[in-house]
Amino acid sequence: MANSPHGGILKDLYVRDEPIQASLQAEAETLPYVTLTERQLCDLELILNGGFSPLDGFLTQAEYTSVVETLRLPDGTLWAIPIYLDIARSELDKLGVSTGSRLTLRDPRDDQPLAIITVSDLYTPDFANEAEKVYGANDQAHPAVHYLFNNTRDTFVGGKLQAVNAPQHYDYVAIRRNPTEVRALFKKLNWTRVVAFQTRNPMHRAHRELTVRAARMRHANVLIQPVVGLTKPGDIDHFTRVRVYQAIMPKYPNGMAQLSLLPLAMRMGGPREALWHAIIRKNFGATHFIIGRDHAGPGTNSQGQDFYGPYEAQDLVLKYKDELDIEVVPFQMLTYLPDTDEYMPINEVPKETKTLNISGTELRRRLKTGAPIPEWFSYPEVVRILREANPPRDKQGFTVFLTGLHASGKEAIARALQVALNQEGGRSVSLLLGETIRHELSSELGYTKRERNINVARIGFVAAELTRAGAACIAAPIAPYDEARQLVRQQVDKTGGFYLVHVATPLEACIKNDRAGVYQRAINGEIKGFTGIDDVYEAPENPDLSADITKTSISQIVHEIILLLERDGYIGDR
Prior knowledge:
- This protein is an alpha/beta fold.
- The strands form 4 sheets. Strands 1, 2, 3, 4, 5 and 6 form a 6-stranded mixed β-sheet that branches.
- Strand 7, helix 9 and strand 8 form a beta-alpha-beta unit.
- It is globular and about 85 Å long.
- The N and C termini lie far apart (57 Å).
């Protein structure tokens, strides 16, 4: 039979509150409300469905303090990660929230009421203390600490929850199972010993071998339960990963394994997170849980050293194994032995035996460049999916962002570059000129700093979407402020290449080139806030290319941009 829930009772609030769901739905529409963040949405779903048992609400101050300081709830039950509802004090004051208030929690995606919280207390957390005690260091190189200081609001709201509606998902619905459903599946399949495997990365042959070894060692079946909530920034998107998991499932012997998704917001908390993961899998009914090397590790700190030791997570969970009541299956890293065509834990490999491995960095390089990925490392079906999601550079989009004063020549460069890229072929080319964008997208905006930044942000959004679609985007606004340009770079970098070109033509030459006489009108005081005259232009400090049309021909500037693109593999045949 399935393992007993943590704390003895599965706190499935949907089942508990089903008899009064209609009245809760009606009440939720009358209450003040807050819209959840993406992390809060993940946390709420797992509280409501029992994945976070014994929690039945967001932590109160006493519970939060106890978890942070002792890894336990006030009643002594093990709990490793503080789960809180953070809301800005200003918003709480605006809503009139105080102790005893009832507040509706709404889904940020469709505005549906998901739960009602009865507020038991409001408190101000100590972020630095949480960073030190929970994540081991007050270092914003840690993604959870960065989130804590940059995304978490100043007031925590503690209180019990009542379930109104489950979050609506439209992806992979058949394999999104809550603890009650997973337990029912185990019962239907007559699974009595289940080893759970946590992952936030694509699975390859080594992962399949690791889970099968665990099953053999413990005479168990396997639950592959990947995280599809929030993971480490920069991770492969969950749509690609789930396609990989679905492709690898037929590689298991028939009846050995099942795939079920977990809507968890990871904190990358290493040892504490591993303990938390074990508790969650216990709530889903697993009897065993695999913990490998550097489980839920965030990488290196600001000094370039690993935040946690490679097996620190295993050590902490094993410390509490007697009261956890879920057996930990620790594993060393597996490595491939080409002479015998097998995988083996690295600590079991005989001396002087030849081994092979491909690191995550090397895999990303091979995907980026189109270099071969051997079948001993991954299955062809998996590689095909990863290549579709990570096309080589010559199939990816990019943005060339030209910035400079009015009449600096950036529009002429942009048009000439458009011709050159169309001649090159291979992708569509879009041209976003400053005046065109002003007319089509930002006609209501003026020329204050705020409005200029909004205009540039809109250009950045369009450029990022075009880049995501594999197009070449050429943008040529004035974009006088460095902060706005940097935000555009951040947007586009997530989807493809970004090149900042500073058209550094001197103001005197720009005035001379200005046939419309706009500069002269600004000099005469007829136009206020004109960039270069009575408003600042912040020259980029580190552009990818700087050009001056009084010194370099437009055709040469375009050629230099083309060379940048060729250098990085976006154009040309390698």
